[in-house]
Specification:
binds copper (II) ion, alpha+beta, 2 domains, Immunoglobulin-like, 5-stranded mixed β-sheet
Length: 132
């Protein structure tokens, strides 16, 4: 009788363990960060302004058949740039390096705020991420 009870207990314990694992899997799926894709196409970031929640993964995908980069900071173009020594002001929050067609670059932004960025080799390509 003692043996039978031990075996039954063992099954109960195994059953509870597998329940717990299922719950953990569900929790892990819910905790997966959201990803927002920004396409780089025809010398533009599209969309050029996105608003996301903290912790969102921003993924840039290059659809042009030549290289671009993603440089955080401000690039100032137009008439206001005419009398400036510098028109690009990287803030070193993120930088992708050059990446070509079909390649991507991702960052996770956890702090609320506005993040301007541009392409260093095409400084007229400017865009913004708002984290709030
Ligand atoms: Cu570019």
């Amino acid at each position: 009788m003692y043996m039978v009870r031990t075996i039954v207990m063992a099954f109960v314990v195994l059953g509870l363990t597998s329940c717990g694992d299922d719950e953990n899997e569900n929790t892990a799926k819910e905790a997966q960060p959201e990803t927002r894709v920004v396409e780089i196409w025809n010398l533009k970031f599209m969309p050029d302004v996105i608003t996301v929640k903290p912790g969102t993964v921003i993924k840039w995908v290059n659809k042009d058949d030549f290289d671009h980069d993603v440089t955080s900071g401000l690039s100032i173009n137009g008439p206001e740039a005419r009398n400036m020594d510098e028109t690009k002001f990287p803030d070193h929050k993120f930088y992708s390096g050059l990446f070509g067609q079909g390649k991507s670059f991702s960052v996770t932004l956890t702090k609320k705020g506005e993040y301007n960025y541009y392409c260093n080799i095409h400084p007229f390509m400017v865009a913004k991420i708002i984290v709030k």
